[in-house]
Amino acid sequence: MPFKLDGARTVPSVCPYCAVGCGLLVHVRDGRILNIEGDPASPINEGTVCPKGAAAFQLAVNPNRLTKLLYRPPRARAWEERPLDWAMDRIARLVRETRERTFVRESGGMPVHRTTAIASIGGAVFDNEENYLLVKLMRGLGLVGIENQARV
Fold it and tell me: What's the longest Cα–Cα distance across the chain?
C-alpha cells in the first residue's frame, strides 16, 4: 500500500489563523492539497501547531464548504438560494453606490477623502496577505472604520 504523500510536492507556507506566523508544510499532488502539517524547520513553531493550525487542512479542503448562499429580498418572507458570484456582484455594486453617495473630499477646509458610511472587519479566516490586501482596499476606498479580530 503506497504512502498517501508519495509523489507529493511539499510547499512551505504560513498558518493563516493569527499573527504568530507558524510555519506549515503543505503537501500537494496534481493540484490538490493532500496534507498540511507544522514545519519542523520553522524557528517559530518548530513543527508544532495550535488546535486551529492543526485544522488548516479542513479550512482549505472541505466538501462541506458553502458554494451558494441564502438571500432574503427586502420585505420578503422567504429565503432564496443564490450563487456566490451574484453576492459578490451585489456587494461590489452596493459598496460603490454607498461610497459615491457618502464620500467626503474636504471637511473644515482640510482634505479628508473619506466615507464613514462603510466599515470593515476582518477575521481569523484571512491570512496575513489577505488582511494586508483588505486594509489596502479599504483605505483606498476611503474607509475610516477598519478592524480585525483574529479570534472571530
Answer: 74
Which tens digits make up the pLDDT trace of 94-137?
999 999 999 999 999 999 999 999 999 987 777 777 888 999 99
| Range 124-133, long-range pairs (CB < 8 A, 24+ positions) | 124/16, 124/17, 124/18, 124/52, 124/149, 124/150, 124/151, 124/152, 125/16, 125/59, 126/16, 127/14, 127/16, 128/14, 128/16, 128/19, 128/21, 130/16
Please provide the distance, in angstroms rounded to a whole number, between the alpha carbons at the two ends of the chain: 41
Instruction: State the residue for C-alpha cell 481569523.
Output: 124
